[in-house]
Amino acid sequence: MDTEAKDPVTVRLHSHVEMGSMELKSILGYDDQGLVAAPEKKNESPLKTLYSSGSGSFEPPLKALYSSGSGTFEPNLKALYTSGSGSYYRRVMKNTVVNSIRTVVFSSRLNLLMPFGPLAIVVDKVNSHHGWVFLLSLLGIIPLAERLGYATEQLACYTGPTVGGLLNATFGNATELIISIYALRNGMIRVVQQSLLGSILSNMLLVLGCAFFAGGLVFSKRPQVFNKPTAAVNSGLLLMAVMGLLFPALLHSTHTELHFGKSELALSRFTSCIMLVAYASYLFFQLKSQRSLYVPVDEGEEIHSDASDDDNEVPEITKCESIIWLTILTAWISVLSEYLVNAIEGASVAMNIPVAFISVILLPIVGNAAEHAGAVMFAMKDKLDITLGVAIGSSTQISMFGIPFCVMVGWSMGVSMDLNFQLFETAVLFITVLVVAFMLQEGTSNYFKGLMLILCYIIVAGSFFVHIDPTAIQDKPPEPDD
């Protein structure tokens, strides 16, 4: 027994088993016990082939399990799972698919709203009642946007916190960008502008406010701390976006264009290119050049290091499953977005609600469901740096990437999408950026700051409810005569 324990192949094999997956260790451990207890049994196939080479000696074909072909002992689970008839492998794959569907589709009560999506399509085909189609599509997109955020969070578990925040912001804004592209295709420029503007306002005031408020209530004994330099960089980018939107609006309002009707559009496209370059530079600065600037602030490093094992979250689905679910959810959101956009004008008339209120308030609340849930959840776990990465990072991405991207897409479609968001909308954005920048300058948060941001959003919502956009009806081009 001593010589067998000291055998280098056996020692190396056991070390690899200890470093392998828990499932593999359980299989090998169980089979070892079976061999010791009753080696004469013949009901151990296909695991018998694991230990028997045909000569009666217990030596690799373990090598067949652990060898990758180069002679090194590496796990080869495919050889284990596909041995024999392959039924075990198929059973594992079936259980994986079932567990994935159960985790993603049936784990949230909000998914009870999912049937409203197909119901909206049925109502549109039957009687085309725009009010009901809009309402049902809106309700159907809410759980899809939330599940899109969930799948993004699962994918972010396999990346670092910086890339994770970027993924949350990117896929969190996928709903708004999809709706905007469909609206651009229909020539509804003001709907695109106002929905993107509403997404920025919703993230900066409502999402961040609810996160600060919920986190402040959970940690009411002390203020929560976040990375102040990161917030300062995002505030600077938001002010740059305000500058890009303000100049075309002033040029249009003061009637000082060099070429009337052309200079404003040319300036918008030129500014959009500059903003895209600035956002690409920001990504390089964030992910490559100054990564140390975006290290999350940890209060009480000793306590945090002791409890690090408890704080680390284990993903519920695999990386591949996360990507597949992101693709499926994005495609289904795209289908419902088309019905939603086509019903906006009819719903405005049927429900007697201004198009501006629908575009700035209702659509972004639905599109930001993923950011809203994620930001509040992270704030309640005292992870405010991820909260800011989701809320403020999402606003930065929409203002510096989403809006210029839609200008470029409109240019390729032959649609005159510009950066003239009108003075009222631009002024609201400018005041919002200033308010949030003042809230973030201390690097701390509490429930009172969150309450003030929520109240500011209510004021903005009331303003757009009584605001009539004179150009909203003129956006959609007339139908060509046959």
Q: Write down the overall mean pLDDT.
A: 76
Work out the number of β strands: 2
How many helical stretches? Answer: 23
Query: What structural category arises from helix and sheet content?
Result: mainly alpha
Which percent bin holds the helix content? over 70%
Could you explain how this protein is built, in words?
With about 475 residues, the chain is mostly helical. The protein has helices spanning about 1-5, 10-20, 20-35, 50, 60-65, 75-80, 85-105, 115-125, 130-155, 160-170, 175-185, 190-220, 230-255, 265-290, 300-305, 310, 320-340, 345-350, 355-365, 370-380, 385-415, 420-440, 445-465; strands spanning about 225, 445. Strands 1-2 form a two-stranded antiparallel sheet. It is globular.
Entry keywords:
single chain, 482 residues, mainly alpha, globular
List the helices and strands and how they pair.
Blueprint: H1 2-6, H2 8-19, H3 22-37, H4 48-51, H5 62-66, H6 77-81, H7 87-105, H8 116-126, H9 130-156, H10 161-172, H11 174-185, H12 189-218, E1 224-225, H13 228-253, H14 263-289, H15 301-306, H16 308-311, H17 319-342, H18 344-351, H19 355-367, H20 369-380, H21 384-413, H22 422-440, E2 444-445, H23 447-465
Helix pairs in contact: 8-9, 9-10, 9-17, 9-18, 9-20, 10-21, 11-12, 11-17, 11-21, 12-19, 12-20, 12-21, 12-22, 12-23, 13-14, 13-21, 13-22, 14-21, 20-21, 22-23
